[in-house]
Every structure is written in structure tokens, then in C-alpha cells.
Amino acid sequence: MQTTAFSELFPLFSSASPETLEWLLSIAVEHEYPAGRAVLMEDAWGNAVYFVESGWVKVRRHSGEEVVTLAILGRGDFFGEMAILDESPRSTDVVALSPVKLLSISAQRFIQTLFKDSQLHHKMLQLMVRRLRQTNFRFQIQHRAPAIKLANTLVLLGENYGKSTPHGTEIFNVPIKDLADVTDINPDDAAKIMEKLDSKGWIKIDAAGQTMRLLNMRQLAHLAGKI
Predict the structure, then answer these.
(1) Which domains does the chain have, with CATH numbers?
(2) Of residues 92 and 38, which shows the higher confidence score?
(3) Full-model pTM
């Protein structure tokens, strides 16, 4: 991968220096996993930072026998960055929702790079603040109707990872259980809302192709209270 393509794919590196990009590419390790495979076990947190080159993954929390999806990440995003600064025990893992390609950079080398490139350091802080703001908005609407909360989840997935097509914004067809977990609603409610959004013509699911098209982002954003 060329440094230009690298910086365009990952927003984190959009303002990094050419020297930093070349260095990161030279030390990055490539990984490929099929759908359903655990790509990062809870005891491996803190060893490296991972970048999603293609595909979709979910971050899960384990609590006894219960497993809850905390986040869904797609192309261009990264995970593991907080664990390299926090050595407390982990109770989460990351699983591939679809076939996925990842790049990893060891924790020690990534931290060294952050200290050397102030622009990269600043960009990482900006992206982490963005995540915090999204989490805060989810907290603000936690007592709102399930449809509002689910619309917010779909809009965020579309804005963060969606592929623009002539037929709408295309994202992965996230399983209802995972979608419900991330939205903090009941899976039955999530299924009913998705059926209603489909009947309204706001979304279109291609189960065979494992994709979902968000046909009316403006209406979804309006429902979510974002405009």
C-alpha cells in the first residue's frame, strides 16, 4: 500500500508526516480473518493497535454467560488504542462480522510514533473526542423511543463507514442482536423497527449480499434528532 492510499483510508493518519507514514507501513503486520472468527481475545488487549483495512468487526463484552456487543467498527477505523495506555484487566474481545483485513502495529512502536509526530498525536485525540461525543449523544437519548435510538445507530454507521452508491449509503447488514445491543434496545423491538423502516422505503436489506442500503439518510437523521 502506498503512503497516500494509507492516509486516505485511515483518517487517523490524514495529517501524519510522510516519514511517519512510511515508518508505520514498514512495521505494520497484515491479518486476514473469516466471518465469525475472534480477531482479538480479551487476554491480547494492550499488545497492539489494530486498523480495519476492509470488512466489519464487533467489540463484545463478557459478563458471566452473557455476551453484549458494545461497538461495531468498519473500514478506516481502529481499536486497541486505549488498552495500550491502560493495563487493567479486560473483559472484551473483537470478532469479525464479515471477512476482514486488519493491520496491526505493536503498542511500543505506536506509542513511540505518537511521541515523534505531534500531528498524529493531535489527530488521535480529535478522533477519541469524536467517539466520546457520539457516546454522550447516545447517553442523552437513552430514554427516548427505540426507533429514535436505532435511527441514530444507523446514521452513525452510515456516516462513519458507509459507501456512497447511486442507490443510497451502503453498510454491512448487521445482525439484529448486535444492532439491538449497540442501540441498547430489545432485539424484538429492533426487528420490528427495521421492518417498518423497510416498508417506508428508508432502508433496503440485501440478505444475500450481506448489505444494507440507507436510502433516506436525511429522514433517518431527522428521526434520530440529529437535524
Answers:
(1) 3-137 (2.60.120.10), 143-224 (1.10.10.10)
(2) 38
(3) 0.91
